[in-house]
Amino acid sequence: MAMPTNKSRRFVAWTLTGLLASCSLNSQNTQSYTSPNGWFTLEHPISWQLELEAGVYTFVDPNDLSWAFQVSAY
Questions:
Q1: The predicted structure's pLDDT at residue 22
Q2: Which residue from 20, 61, 64, 72 lies 20 to 30 Å from 47 (Cα-Cα)?
Q3: Contact predicate 52/40, CB 8 Å
């Protein structure tokens, strides 16, 4: 599997920043997750849970299963 390029890393960081900017995150109500290979870190609400399958990281809020936030790299 090829490692993400700097351009794709910037895009992922920009996308994550944009998606989470509308969340009112407070450091007391968040936690950080860093992928095992270290290619991304995500600060997310404590209520989110992580499911990892076949290299796809899926974050869900068990209180609202109408959506899922997925991270993957190719």
A1: 44
A2: 72
A3: no
Close Cβ partners of 1 (under 8 Å, ≥ 6 residues apart): 55, 74
Closest C-alpha among 50, 54, 45, 43 to residue 68: 50
Any residues with CB less than 8 A from the CB of 22 and at least 6 apart, and which? none
Q: Which residue shows structure tokens 């404590």?
A: 46
Which one-letter amino acid corresponds to residue 22? Answer: S
Structure tokens at 41: 């870190």
SS3 of the chain: the string is CCCCCHHHHHHHHHHHHHHHHCCCCCHHHEEEEECCCCCCEEEEECCCEEEEECCEEEEEECCEEEEEEEECCC
Mean pLDDT of 11-36: 64
pTM, two decimals, is 0.60
